[in-house]
Amino acid sequence: MKFLCAVVLLFAAIAFAAAGDLEDELSWQSYKAQFQKKHHPKDEARRKANFIKRQRQIEKHNKENKEWEMGNNQFSDMTDEERQALLGAKPVIRKERSFNPAFPIEDRVLPISIDYRSDKCMQPVKQQADCGSCWSFATVVPLEFNTCKKTGTPVALSEQMLVDCDPYNYGCDGGDYTNAWKFIKEKGGIMINSSYPYVSGTTKTSGTCKFSSTSVAARVSTYGWTMPYPNATVSMQYLQDHGPLPSAMRVLDSLYQYKTGVYSDAACILADENLVDHAVVIVGYGTTTTTPAIPYWIVRNSWGTTWGNLGYMAIKRGVNMCNIESWTAYVDVI
Fold it and tell me: According to the UniProt entry, where is the signal peptide (predicted)?
């Protein structure tokens, strides 16, 4: 009888394992179709293993965390090294920023929420692809927005010009948005995207600078860091007065699979504010209607619309999550 029970349990275990393997295979095939993934046969097993590992992480997180949700995206089958290559924020250190004057915190009533996502001056979310050029996308967003506010006409500007031409930054190897504004101001402006389209995600390297003053579509007036920092109220004031604010943040493994909700991670409350590696843009703020209510920033990424909430995310506000409140900056245009 004991032998019979053991045999039954063995067959049940085999059947269970087979069912699990079949479910993983079906999920893998569905994922590849959804995100148009085509792998070399020799690379298929490794990519599938990466996907299954991330799928388990997603399932565990979504079961345990109710504030924000994970989901599959273009990163689910990537290696850790490939995902790290997308990070390219190299902002100037705090010592250099300390020379900028700090403006007093104004005693005024701020809007309950700001959301620039649907503003006609906000360009569609873009995709930096396989290049650490996040800094160039963070540089361009406020220039596009503020130029449109001045002229009344939406404009798309060239990230590739910065990747190819900016001597103060490092192309696909990273950079700083304030240095990029410095370059744009010295150069006399930044070109329109249609005259200098983005290709770094496909070529993986920066090319020869093809700047032409005849295609300049925006010019920098003034720029700087929001001061004092980190201070959520100050950033909210600047957001209202100067439009979208680029910032830098630390990217933990959990962020790659973010889908929706207010992102937070206990491991991203950092003692060292210089621990940042990715440039993003704060385009609004608000507070959830949940109990307890959670204040959040609305953040625009440059990882395409299949990441997060159509390329955007919400991240907890007022706690300097991932150092995002230490690196906000503003720019005005001519």
Answer: 1-19
